[in-house]
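Sample entry (330 residues):
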Amino acid sequence: MSQYNILVVDDDREIVRSLGKLLELEGYRVKKAYNGMEALDILMTEQIHLILLDVMMPKMNGLSALMKIREKNNIPIIMLSAKGETFDKVLGLELGADDYMVKPVDDEEMLLRISALLRRSNIANEHKLHAGGTVLDYDALTVTSGGNTYELPDPFVVIATQNPIGSIGTQKLPESQLDRFMIKLSMGYPQIEDEVAIMKSRLENGKNTQFSACVLEKGDIEGIREEVAGIYVDDSIYEYVAKIAAKTRSRENIIQGVSPRGSIAVIAMAKAEAFLRGNNYVLPSDIKNIAVETFAHRIVTNVNGAAGTEAARKEITEILRNVPVPEMNK
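Predicted structure, serialized as tokens:
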């Protein structure tokens, strides 16, 4: 299954149906809208990677929708229209379309154009995290939201929260975006005494937030980062992680395995684990201690819904049991 969501927008329901079927056969996930207004609503609640946008539609036509989308979003857009004059093509492209195809479109050509646009978009966004209309640019150290760009300090930390079951009003990140998060942790519910403290703090103090005292200065964090970067990793450890990652790509219950980015993340996390344990070298136990939290959110299993999270953790745990632990060189 592809990691890409494609939004098909056309008032002709038969065209939407046939395009949707074609795209699904190619492994894309398809969202459908029948006018510009519906398309904008979907963009508010869904992560979309490319739009096929008809020009002539009721309520809001394709060109108006295109302009609205371009106010906040750089999603690749291919205009589909029966209007094939040069003026129409130029107008669509000048308003922000990435491509323009005249109906009836050739299926093979359209699929090739979609693939090319997604490939270029993926390269351009390699160091960017997208969540709805908000974009985090790791290279530029900026966050852009609502048309405004804000500079980030260095270092900075990105923390995203997710409800365990309900998702109304939130957007599920696609696998390519989840892969950019180092780890995924489940906090669970608080203990009885902790929940009592939470209630008393909120109701008696009348405040919803409490700020902890500063425990580390910026210079301290930068110094720790340098020390962690210098932690030694033996070749046998690199091979151990590579074997674990390879297993995720060949198991029957895993649809999509760990990418090389995931392997790099595990090594980075293991070096931090070694530092916290007072070692200047990584042990196999460091890998085991952080592998589930670093790998599980990067794989896709054949279990859907909330149960998929636990299934992913179990798959990684099983792989760790079966991959031989290396003997460290002395």
